[in-house]
Amino acid sequence: MVEEVSTRSGAHLSVEGVTVQFGGLTALSDVGFEVRPGQVLGVIGPNGAGKTTLFNVVCGFTRPQQGRLTLDGQVFRPAPQRLVRSGVSRSLQGLGLFPGLSVLENIVAGGGSAARTGWWSGLLALPRTDRDERRLHERAGALVDELGLGAYAHAQPGTLPYAVSKRVALARALVSEPRLLLLDEPAGGLGHDEVLELGELITSLPSRGAGCSVMLVEHHVDLVMQVCDELVVLDFGRVIATGVPEVVREDPAVAEAYLGAEVDAS
Ligand SMILES: Nc1ncnc2c1ncn2[C@@H]1O[C@H](COP(=O)(O)OP(=O)(O)OP(=O)(O)O)[C@@H](O)[C@H]1O
């Protein structure tokens, strides 16, 4: 088991002692965990637990007051516009597809500066070559096929069924061949069969291309239990449990956090 993990590739993200306050409210308190190479790590927790805040910290939308991130051992100060250059990609709850562009063009747009020969060239701000451009279009075309988007390649986002839009957003996040993929509620609004398909896709990500680690923020507990190697459970901004799904599922603190949330809701 250990051997299997150590041979996987993908980025290694470390989140250390992260604290975020909004005025007097502590949204995250001393949060720490790791996403290991080739791992699918799930972040779960009841409403208001701090999941979105954590996602925003890793994307660079929110700066923590304390703590730090490292990516492959280097201090990582994420900025949304530089993420792709760092080998990181994200798919947000709000799909954010460009209305004036076709599905294929939207996917190509996800290449950003990584359209250059790779994210490392993007980091050095090397100019984009025709060959880079061609490769980007090839990758976009391959994703259209792989995610079953062929019938929609030239459609406008506004005309797509919701589940198809979600696949387009995912393809756009994958076209840069990220080493770390950040997914925010990818199952939101999907039906049962679509969630199953999504689960298969997420499970395949670590062995896709050069390898990809995944941080998945998700409410859909069945999906999380199915696809994640490890879970981090947040409640009131604190990590209350970490571990493999089978163990977290039995953790009394986790049951209590979710039960408390249900009682509040009722
Ligand atoms: N920009 C903000 N300003 C003030 N408070 C905020 C802000 N963003 C989040 N919060 C608060 O921080 C806490 C954590 O919110 P967050 O959205 O991260 O939780 P969550 O686990 O994603 O919740 P949900 O599952 O409902 O989306 C909540 O109490 C929320 O009201």
UniProtKB/TrEMBL annotation:
Keywords: ATP-binding, Nucleotide-binding, Transport. One of its GO terms (molecular function) is ATP hydrolysis activity. One of its GO terms (cellular component) is plasma membrane. It holds the Pfam family ABC_tran. InterPro entries: AAA+_ATPase, ABC_AA/LPS_Transport, ABC_transporter-like_ATP-bd, BCA_ABC_TP_C, P-loop_NTPase. SMART domains: AAA (SM00382). PROSITE patterns: ABC_TRANSPORTER_2. This is ABC transporter ATP-binding protein. It comes from Aeromicrobium chenweiae.
